[in-house]
Amino acid sequence: MVVTRFAPSPTGYLHIGGLRTALFSYLWARKNNGKFVLRIEDTDKKRNSQEATQAILKAFEWLGLEADGEITYQSQRDAIYAKYIQQLLDEGKAYKCYMTKEELDALREEQMANKERAKYDGRYRNFDGTPPEGVAPVIRIKAPLNGEIVVHDGIKGDVVFQAEDILDDFIIARSDGSPTYNFVVAIDDALMGINEVIRGDDHLSNTPKQIVVYKALGFDIPKFYHVPMIHNQQGKKLSKRDGATDVMAYKEMGYLPEALLNFLVRLGWSHGDQEIFSMEEMIALFDPKDINKSASIYNTEKLDWLNAHYIKNTSNDTLAEMLIEFGVVLTSHDKKEILLDALKERAKTLKELAELTQEIITTPSEYDAKALKKALKGNAKEVLKNFATKLQSATELHLPSDYHHIMEQVIEEMEIGFGKIGQPLRVALLGKLGGPSLDVVMAVIGKEETLLRVKNLLESDI
Ligand code: GLU
Fold first, then answer.
1. Contact (Cβ atoms closer than 8 angstroms) between residue 254 and residue 352
2. Per-residue pLDDT tens digits for 39-94
3. How far is the CA of 237 from the CAs of 53, 202, 251, in angstroms?
């Protein structure tokens, strides 16, 4: 059974790079009827926060990515790590090192002066003397000092590391007994039965160390997929400014979960030239072996395009519910249908949809000066008065076409072009030129509000 995981460090919000590897891991597990588990890597007590963990869980909930089983918290597993540290000490695969900070600094300086790589020199590897007094030891693992360590990577192929270039007997427990990152990751992945690790390739350099731990403890080494980074349009690492922000910020900007997930799955993975993927399709088609070998490029227009697609294809009821968070409450069923049918074709985000909606349902408190000047030329006020009179006596006004009909009556009677009524009416209703179809606006706001807005313009002393 395929078991994948997402293992965020809760030092901040969940960003889209992390979310993408989470999504890949999720899809691969689901495709194989396997398991996708969540592990919170909260061992760095200084930098971790409860809020950050909650924010990650909230983001998962919003996106509908459900993890299997209980969430594992590394902070609750000290006893497990201590047991394995002891095991390695007992087996002679790890040892106590009493080097002081000063000695370590001196060694580093010397190595730097000799233009050598800074690395521990193994001075306590075979130590059987009396430990120096007053030094709390760290625990170091005996790593291979030469030879090759090969990471069999499902995306990059075999990546060969020379032990002497990258390894030393690295620390697995600090002097206060707390275990280190590469040690606990390997133990947890093994104990949690993770057999396929999909993560960012910024972790590739950690993998040889983790392999050392797997081997020392006799654990099976999982299959690794190190996913290339996401770059901005300039080919640089994605920064906050490019969109590498909190996943929940995408919610606030009005992106739909489906759109964000669809966007992310295409960052570094493709299936022919298909762009739109439902969750079912993603699960059916995703395979980490198809992940690109090179970095992917973040493209906001693509995200907007996908979001517009999903907004268009979301039911009006669901959209109305989502708009509440953006301050728009649509109560009447008919109006909701008319309004959203008209507007959802025009909005790239829910935020935009909310703004477009607000523009219609809010009585204008001021008029765009230029629009006003243009619209009130000639006999515009007379046209508006005529329209208002006809509207006043009309009954059975429901659909946009009912309102359109009255506009047509005015046009015919006064022998004017559509613009002669359209422009002043538009300014009266919306305060500006531009915007959605006027008959739609009127059907949404209704007869009384339409009359009020026309009256407001006619009575304003412009
Ligand atoms: N906790 C690590 C991080 O947030 C990920 C560890 C891993 O995927 O192996 O970067």
1. yes
2. 999 987 777 788 888 999 999 999 999 999 999 999 999 999 999 999 999 999 99
3. 25, 11, 23
Is 328 strand, coil or helix?
Answer: coil
> Is ligand 1 within 6 A of the CB of residue 199?
yes
In terms of Cα–Cα distance, which of 286, 311, 378 is closest to 34? 286
Element (H, E) at 197: strand 196-200
CATH of 1-66+228-313, one of 1.25.40.80, 3.40.50.620, 3.30.70.1520, 3.40.50.300: 3.40.50.620
For residue 154, report the distance from its CA to the centre of ligand 1, in Å: 18
Which atom number of ligand 1 is nearest to the Cα of residue 21? 8
| Residue of 240, 370, 373, 377 with catalytic role | 240
Residue nearest atom 7 in ligand 1 by C-alpha distance: 7
pLDDT, tens digit, 9 for 90 and up, residues 304-336: 999 999 999 999 999 999 999 999 998 877 789
For the cut 70, the answer to whether the pLDDT of residue 244 exceeds it is no
Domain 78-173 is found in CATH 3.90.800.10: yes
* Domain parsing of the chain, residue ranges: 1-66+228-313, 78-173, 316-459
Class of domain 316-459: mainly alpha
Residues in Cβ contact with 447 at an 8 Å cutoff, skipping those fewer than 6 apart: 391, 394, 397
Q: What is the DSSP letter of 245?
A: S
Tokens of 198: 């999909």
Instruction: Give the closest residue to 351 by CA, choosing from 382, 328, 374.
Output: 328
d(CA 393, CA 400): 17
Site to probe by mutation for ligand 1, drawn from 20, 40, 41 as the one with most ligand atoms within 8 Å of Cβ, is: 41
Q: Tell me the pTM.
A: 0.91
The confidence band for 461, taking pLDDT boundaries of 50, 70 and 90, is: low
Segment 404-411 long-range contacts (CB within 8 Å, at least 24 positions apart): 404/439, 407/438, 407/439, 410/383, 410/386
Please name which of 349, 375, 348 lies closest in space to residue 432, comparing C-alpha atoms.
375
Is 447 one of the annotated active-site residues of the chain? no
Which helix (H) or strand (E) covers residue 224, if one does?
A: strand 223-227
